[in-house]
UniProtKB/TrEMBL annotation:
InterPro entries: DIOX_N, IPNS-like_FE2OG_OXY, IPNS-like_sf, Oxoglu/Fe-dep_dioxygenase_dom. Residues 217-318 form the Fe2OG dioxygenase domain. It comes from Nepenthes gracilis. This is Fe2OG dioxygenase domain-containing protein. GO terms for molecular function: dioxygenase activity; metal ion binding. Signal peptide: none annotated. Belongs to the iron/ascorbate-dependent oxidoreductase family.
Amino acid sequence: MPSPSLGGEAGAAAYDRKSELKAFDESKAGVKGLLDSGLSKVPQIFINQQEHNRPSESSDQKSQLAIPVIDLAGIEDDAEKRREVVKNVADASEKWGFFQVVNHGISQSMMDEVLEGVRRFNELDVEEKKKFYTRDYSNKFVFNSNYYLYQGPVTNWRDTFMCYMAPSPPEPETFPTVCRKIMMEYAKHAMKLGLTLFELVSEALGLNPNHLKEMDCAEQLMLLGHYYPPCPEPEVTIGFGKHADNDFLTVLIQDQVGGLQILHDNEWVDVPYVPGALVINNGDLLQLVSNNKFKSVHHRVQAQNVGSRVSMAAFFRSDWDNMRLYGPIKEILSEENPPIYGETTSKSYLDYYYTTGQDGSPALEHYKLTNL
């Protein structure tokens, strides 16, 4: 596959980023295609100029920090255990915005097969993958590289496929055969777990267990399979730039390669692989409706040269056509806790989020009452 021009030798003055992005996009081969073409240097469009996305040195303080791991065993039939878990979810959501869960009801073998499905698709022959490459997000199955390709200030070393599994599941033939069965099966398990998590988060806010579900926070389920090929120069680029998620909750399967980091107290902290665990994080919309009680935390993925990193993210939010207004939940407001944000529909929020690109700035700031 012909690779996009690297620009370098002609000097910075000759570099036309827009043309380089267009050439990369029109190749329809993604980052994996670049790597397969035999390049040994990172093309200029991937060179990271952002300080907040540069690799950070490990420190003693950072190495001692640990993302909470919460055991969900027994929450259905042990009231005391459930109260303990709800407290742990509240603590983690307030202090970290991230936590991991074990004994969540999804087997290790299923999680392994989900990641293998992502890998199998991304390692298909390039001509086969090109059939699915598009930036038309009305499609039920979309494969491309960098969904912020033209808006983002830095191009991520990452390819992605995405599909919407609820409220209207796609027909099986929508999917490539190499990942069809596992995607359809996993979506059912992810939705079941998502509804359980929304119950726990509702209770952690002091609300009825069904409160967030009845607000349609888990109406839409989107699955995103990320593939990060090994990078020849991981120190100059980024796997996934600093960002916060634009949903209510995210459930992530990650492999053992590593690279996921969260920004905690101005320190980048690794989110380690824990066998059998799923990574859970709050999205911007949960921070909005919880009136800043539960944090949506910036995170990123460092590029690696030790192998391809694979992950599967499940995003939960309301459906595109749902015109429900979301603002701070009235039941948790008081004189001491007045609303911080104005109301918005989920779609309006997403439209704004997508126009900003992933520049590391918090999109939620736009919705603060002081800015409206």
